UniProtKB/TrEMBL annotation:
It comes from the Bacteria. This is BLUF domain-containing protein. Pfam families: BLUF. SMART domains: BLUF. GO terms for molecular function: blue light photoreceptor activity; FAD binding.
Amino acid sequence: MELVQLCYVSSINLKDLRLMAEFRNAMHRAATFFTEQHIHGVSFYANEHFLHCFEGEAESIDLIYQHILNHQDQNYRFCFLNNIEEFHFEAWQMKYVDRNGVVSIFCKKCGLNHFKPMSLTDQQIDELMQIVSVRTVSK
């Protein structure tokens, strides 16, 4: 089994209530898919911005990658796709960025006033994923 990790950033405009309902439905479908496909990782959200990190078998992660490519209406940037030896996250979780949490503190150290992952470099995102994965996996 070949395990890979895909990280990308995206943004969405949720000011329209119809879009908010579509977003909630999409998140529910994603959570179901992630459970069925044994996808691990995390999606951080704040200020209409996301930072996603998915881990799983290469075939399952490729389905996610292709899905993202097919939704060209989204604003996104792929950061990296790495082979991994083991999962860094116990399961997939959706998390809101806490103003005083580790993600916000990291963003401030990188010169950002708030969570805006599109402004982080791929190297910074990799560093942040290493920090949050240590806090997620019980050893």
